[in-house]
Structure formats: structure tokens, C-alpha cells
């Protein structure tokens, strides 16, 4: 077992409390799309809308679990998943408190190019100083999905 240089825990994602209006608005949008799909006799699209709305609602109600994180001499551990530094290209810290506090890792894998890690209450300067020993710091762009989810408070 390698020595942990930094160790912390944080919620796996930012949870926004959603009131009834959030569910009513998304329900109306999904209902409208569902009706439109039925009127155009596009049953596959109607099924997709129904499943999507169900999935979004379930995820919106889900509470984040607390995850354990560590930066070691060999890589980064997220609960029981380990990412070796050899499989990572770079890192960037998105830090705009109180909403955005996360570490972004760029993977060498094309299927999962970015790994987002919540910083929680961990000091971002300590994380940066530790990671600079192992990875280059390169500016990462936030994805459209991340920005959209944050603006919709999802």
C-alpha cells in the first residue's frame, strides 16, 4: 500500500434541492414532446422521451453519497477505483466557490477523456501542489453538458 499524500471525502456530486415547479416544468416539457411524438406516430421517440423523463426524475431525487478520495505517489484513488498517473495526461482545477470546486483529470483513454473529482472542503492549492509533482497542469474546458446541468440546477 502506498502512502497517501492527500486524502479527503466529498459528496459525489452537487445536489440542488428541487421544488415542485422544477418537476412541473420538466414534466410539461416531456409531456409536450411525448404528445408531439405520438401525433407524428413516432413511437420510438415517444418511448425515448418517457424513459428519459423517468431517468431524469430518478436522478434529480437521488442524494449524493460521500466518496473517499486520495492522491498517492502512484495515482488517484476514488473509492475503490484507481487511476494511475501513467494513464493520465494532465489536470486542471475548476474553483469558483461556492458552486464549482472540482478537479478535472484528462485521461489517455478516448472513451472516457475527462474524470471530474469533487474537492469538497479540500484545499485546492494543496491538491495543485501535490499533482504538479506527477502531472502537467493544462487548462481544461468545461463541457456543454456540465454548464447546462449547472444552469438547470440538475
Name the features.
154 residues; three-stranded antiparallel beta sheet; four-stranded antiparallel beta sheet; elongated; 4 helices; PH-domain like; alpha+beta; single chain; 7 strands
CATH fold-level name of the largest domain: PH-domain like
The unreliable regions are none
- The gross shape turns out to be elongated
Compute the number of structural domains: 2
CATH architecture of the largest domain: Roll
What pattern of helices and strands is seen along the backbone?
EHHEEEEEEHH
Topology, number of strands? 7
Q: What can be said about the biggest beta sheet?
A: 4 strands, antiparallel
Beta-sheet strand percentage?
Answer: 25-35%
In which order are the strands of the major sheet placed? 1-2-3-4
Radius of gyration: 19 Å
Measure the end-to-end span. 37 Å
Description:
By secondary structure, this protein is α+β, with helices and mostly antiparallel strands. The chain folds into two domains: 4-11 and 65-140, PH-domain like; 20-61. Helix content is 36%, strand content 29%. The protein has helices at residues 20-39, 43-61, 124-131, 144-151, and strands at 4-11, 66-72, 75-78, 81-84, 88-96, 100-107, 114-118. A hairpin with a 2-residue loop joins strand 2 (66-72) and strand 3 (75-78). The radius of gyration is 19 Å and the shape is elongated. The two termini are 37 Å apart.
Amino acid at each position: 500500500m502506498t502512502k497517501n499524500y492527500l486524502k479527503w471525502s466529498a459528496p459525489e456530486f452537487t445536489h440542488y434541492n428541487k421544488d415542485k415547479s422544477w418537476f412541473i416544468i420538466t414534466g410539461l416539457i416531456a409531456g409536450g414532446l411525448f404528445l408531439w411524438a405520438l401525433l407524428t406516430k413516432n413511437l420510438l421517440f415517444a418511448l425515448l422521451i418517457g424513459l428519459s423523463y423517468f431517468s431524469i426524475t430518478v436522478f434529480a431525487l437521488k442524494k449524493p453519497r460521500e466518496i473517499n478520495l486520495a492522491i498517492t505517489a502512484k495515482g488517484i484513488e476514488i473509492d475503490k477505483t484507481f487511476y494511475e498517473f501513467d494513464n493520465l495526461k494532465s489536470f486542471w482545477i475548476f474553483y469558483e466557490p461556492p458552486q464549482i470546486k472540482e478537479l478535472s483529470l484528462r485521461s489517455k483513454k478516448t472513451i472516457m477523456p475527462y474524470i471530474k473529482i469533487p474537492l469538497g472542503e479540500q484545499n485546492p492549492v494543496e491538491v495543485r501542489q501535490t499533482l504538479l509533482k506527477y502531472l502537467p497542469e493544462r487548462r481544461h474546458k468545461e463541457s456543454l453538458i456540465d454548464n447546462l446541468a449547472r444552469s438547470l440546477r440538475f
